[in-house]
Amino acid sequence: MTISRRDLIKAGIAAGTALSLPSVLRAQTAPADARIARMVMGGSLSAFDPYYSTATIAYNHAFAIYDTLFGFDSKNMPQPQMVGQWGVSDDKKTYTFELRDDLGWHDGTPVTAADCVASIRRWGQRETGPGPQVMQRVKDISKKDERTFIIALKEPLGLLIEILASERIFVMRERDASLPPTEQVTANIGSGPFKFNHALAKPGASFTYDRNEQYVPRNEPPDGLAGGKVVNVDRVIWDNIADQQTALAALQTGEVDFVQTPPSDFYSVIESDPNLELQVLDKGGEDMFLRMNALQKPFDNVKARQAMLHLIDQEAMMRAAHGDPRYTGTVTSRWGNSPPYSNDENTGWFKKGGDPDRAKQLFKEAGYAGEKVVILQPTDWAATSNASQLLAATLRKIGVNAELAPSDSSALRARRENKGPVENGGWSIFITGSSDDSFRDPIASAYLAPTGEKGWAGWVKNDEFEALRAKWLDVETLEERKAMAREMQRLWWDFVGIVFLGKSVRPIARRKTLTGLIGVPDFVVMWNMQKAS
Amino acid sequence: MAAYILRRMVSTIAVMAMVGIFVFLLLRLAPGDPAAIIAGDTATPQIIAGIREQLGLNEPLPVQFVHWALSILGGDFGTSIFTGRPVLQLISQRLEPTISISILTIILSVTIGVSFGIVAAWRAGGLVDRILTAFATLGFSVPVFVVGFFLIYVFAIRTRWLPVQGYQSIDDGFGPWLVHLILPTVTLGVPYIAFIARIARASMLEVLSEDYMRTAAAKGASSYSMLFHHALRNAGVPILTVIGLSFAGLIGGVVITETVFNIPGVGRLVVDAINNRDYPIIQGVLILVSGLYVLINLAVDLSYTLVDPRIRY
Q1: What is the pLDDT of residue B10?
Q2: Which CATH number goes with the domain that contains B271?
Q3: Which chain A residues are Cβ-neighbours of B160 within 8 angstroms?
């Protein structure tokens, strides 16, 4: 066999091409520009309007493009945001708000008091929060001049500023805010620190937010949802990566900078990568709980509901749901762990490891006779799906005839509206979760109110608790509210509105080049964030 | 021929109509409620009812169907319940990635699959045949997502040669477009290569045992001439059928690959829509895909005349 000069040249060219191929290809896939942050959020943005949808991702979107009148700082104190100055009359019935300078819509027009009035009115129509109850106390909301508006009350409402802050009233243009909250605003024009890029919007795939060059932040350091909202990147792209394994791989290679909800089995991989970091942004975390159908057997009997309180081993539940014990804990107060009203009233039911014997006894006292207990299991939500399976096994161990009903979340939500018995497609238990912070306010978390058949799925009823809840807005001081919170909690754990399964503080995963993320309860905000090259 | 094509086109419309009715009823009978999803987990029945009313979901099913059917006949596929955008606009945004992967996959699969099939048949029983048959069996057996994650690990995470995920439009340049499609195409191509290779091998083996092939060999025809002029043309009809079905299947069946590689194609669109019960999108995609499926089959049927002049329509 002989090798000609021509063969040698051909082989050389081929080898050179092969060796240079990786760099050529890599050049095509260079990491994103240092002024562009790419984020994988914990859900898919499908509805844009935060008054129309209660999905967390809709609020994340709203925090980017809209601004709020007030915001809570990191100490849960309300601070003015769009409002420059405000005052209250001596009789505490008239609040006057003056907008700060240089507020403008993304379409170039100025923000006016009329926009604020319309936005508050729209919030007031929304039935999931305290809006309707607050509006009952409002005599009038009116524009005084282009930058000043007035809220006149029928009677004093000491919590008004706190409600305006905690309710995150996103201010929209008057023409958008004039739509009822059951009709979605899709214009996506706000006055917030980011502009929604309509041209690059690919629903289901990616959404792009550009820095609002005209936005004038408050001249204060950022502090929770208050303070100066300074944007340090030119653009943020939300990549909707459905597969978590792919999201992790993209984070490892620098194609994305942030993954909001990495599964706990990825934590060790992330921790071993020198370029990545886990960070807990929402220190309050999320509380997982189960809700029982109080209209049907066996949970129409309060003893059976109390049995569930004693049965649950929160640590075991959290291990099944979230895995890593470093990021889970227990919760016993009806108000959650972090809100100021958290207390230990009537929490004697809590026992490390649970108390199955006591639970069995209570089921017996409830007259449980082997009725089928159907647990709705959302197969597309891993944490609650796993907890549902453990719950079924735990119930079977004490002789309860538990059965899982697996379905996707959409079908589950439809089924749980069925008030009938399990034989007619009804249900007994479902598991869900809410941020620890959301338990702070019995008016805002109205869905948990024990109003019976008019209320949220589960339909538990307790008039005594409702009477106290109705007085909540009238209580003036924090200390008085704390005392009332203890009394409400005593009732709550007697009639058992929900049963906590534990709490988790799920860390986000980010590349170490992405810094300055602000930790706020429940949401991800994008101001102050910086990206190094 | 013209009459045949016309008949098939009419049947396409009939198929689309049947798919439309079936999908409409199936979706409405399936459990789930878009209003409940929009309203969120903590919404009360009153809020959900308000949204249902606003979306027109409280109207009787026949009324909803007539509204929808009339809109479709007028070329309006409706708007997404969630985003408020026209369904056709959403589908058109997603068509390019799906068609790009499908075309590249079919080119890769046909080139390699047919080559493997020919070589395996030509060397039937030998080492090459056994190796290729083993590859075909493996290609069939390993799930697409396993192949996908393996390729991501090797070519994206370890070597950093290729991107993990995403899609670049061909408008942004041929290079970035191609680079983002290499891994998805190879991943999706593996089972199709295996499938086409097996069919090509079987067809070629059948033809190679025919008397006229022995005659050709006796007349001194070269191996190239025997394989490509005599055998392949006669083995072409079943291979073309498989290729056509594969292509049609690819258009609607790239969901897993699009998910693994985060490609915003039609497959992802329809899966997200199913999860959200976004009825207009699901209906629109399925009707269009069914129409495309029938048209691709028509194209395959017509292509038979190219490889077998005896076939007439």
Answers
A1: 82
A2: 1.10.3720.10
A3: 22, 26, 253
Report residues of chain A scoring pLDDT below 70: 1-32, 446
Say what percent of chain B tops pLDDT 90. 34
**Domain annotation covers residue A184:** no
User: Which of A222, A214, A259, A219 has its CA nearest to residue A109?
Assistant: A214
Cα B11 from chain centroid? 21
Q: Is B103 inside a domain boundary? A: yes
CATH number at residue A100: 3.90.76.10
Number of domains, chain A = 3
Average pLDDT in chain B: 87
Q: Mark whether A35 and A80 lie in a shared domain.
A: no
Q: For A99-141, what is each residue's pLDDT tens digit?
A: 999 999 999 999 999 999 999 999 999 877 788 889 999 999 9
- Write out the residue range of the structural domain in which residue A156 sits: 67-177
- Looking at the fold, whether B63 and B106 belong to one and the same domain comes out as no
Instruction: Report the 3 state secondary structure along A159-197.
Output: CHHHHHHHCCCECCCHHHHCCCCCCCCCCCCCCCCEEEC
Query: A206 in contact with B at a CB cutoff of 8 Å?
Result: yes
Smallest CA–CA distance from A251 into chain B, residue: B164
Q: For the stretch B87-112, what's the b/e string if a residue is b when 16 or more beta carbons lie within 10 angstroms of its beta carbon?
A: beebbebbbbbbebbbebbbebbbeb
* Count of domains for chain B: 2
Inter-chain residue contact B260 with A246, CB threshold 8 Å = yes
Do residue A391 and residue A492 come from a single domain?
yes
Chain A within 8 Å of B171 (Cβ-Cβ)?
no
Q: Is B158 on the interface with A (CB under 8 A)?
A: no
In this structure, what token pair is assigned to residue B44?
Answer: 């009360």
Of B31, B43, B264, which is closest to A202 when you measure between CB atoms? B264
Question: What residues of chain B lie within 8 A of the CB of A456, using their CB?
Answer: 42, 44
Contact A411 B31 (CB under 8 A): yes
pLDDT tens, A321-352? 998 999 999 999 999 998 889 999 999 999 99
